[in-house]
Amino acid sequence: MQRQLPTSAVLIADVPITPALFVRDLGIYIDAELSMRMHVQRTVSHCFAVLRQLHQIRRCVPATTFQMLVVALVHSRLDYGNSVLVGNPAYLLRRLQSVLNAAAWLIFHLKLSDHTTDALVSLHWLRVPERIQYKVAVLGYRVLHGSAPRYLGPLTRVADVPGRRTLRSAATNRLIVPSVKLSTVGSRAFPAAASSIWNSLPEYIISASTLQSFQHHLKNFLFRRSFPDIYFILFYFIKKSSKEIKPQELYIIEHRQ
């Protein structure tokens, strides 16, 4: 994509405008290739700088207060505008995940050689890929219920397509995934990405009547996806108790952030 952009100055009203390799819009760094590498680099750099500052006061504040500071100063930056990272390569998401791992190490006074899975589970923090999916899915819910900006829509339900109203799929809350020309970029557009993520969710989640209920079910579902091994162990002990449980009741014990 960058090859299609001019490399020399462009005259606009007799004023030479030099193309930039990236721009910043509402705190989001957008590069010429739409790879979001610059945004990830700046986000990771900022978050680690904050973590270094928090490390200096870790012993001076209570543990609960310190965790609140990490969430307020690090999570807020990590999650800001993260819906634009949907569909990005795994290596970029791993760099963002390293921030969450470092934050968990700091909160629990772990060694660098310690694994962070137990810490992340205890904190009930979603991994980065699931955090992005959470943000996109919540935006999709708001679009469908008319509480999101219009420029994010429209998202089309299967039931709203005239030719499919008599099909079995019309009885669900599934969405039509729009076709795209470029799979590398087009599939990351909000209508395509939101529809794909929405359709990957169970029916009991996407049929939630309120946003609060949707967020609650969604986070628990994505939490199980983040830590499938932990969920399998819990599921095993639940089944050992011979209790009949519905799918929507299979929740990890939730510890709020």
Strand count, sense and closure of the main sheet? Answer: 2 strands, antiparallel
Count the strands?
A: 4
Helix content: 40-55%
Distance between the termini: 40 Å
pLDDT under 50 segments (min length 5)?
233-240, 245-257
Defining key terms:
disordered C terminus, mainly alpha, 4 strands, 9 helices
Verbal overview:
The structure is a single chain. The protein has a two-stranded antiparallel sheet with strand order 1-2. Strands 3-4 form a two-stranded antiparallel sheet. The protein is mainly alpha-helical and 257 residues long. The protein folds into 2 domains: 2-125, no CATH class; 131-249, no CATH class. Mean pLDDT is 83; it is low at 233-240 and 245-257. The protein is flat, with a radius of gyration of 21 Å. Helix 1 packs antiparallel against helix 2, helix 2 runs antiparallel to helix 3 (90-108) and helix 5 (128-144) runs antiparallel to helix 8. The protein has helices at 37-57, 63-79, 90-108, 117-123, 128-144, 190-199, 203-206, 211-226, 228-240; strands at 10-12, 15-17, 22-25, 28-31. It is built from 9 helices and 4 strands. The chain starts with 9 loop residues before the first strand and ends in a 17-residue tail after the last helix.
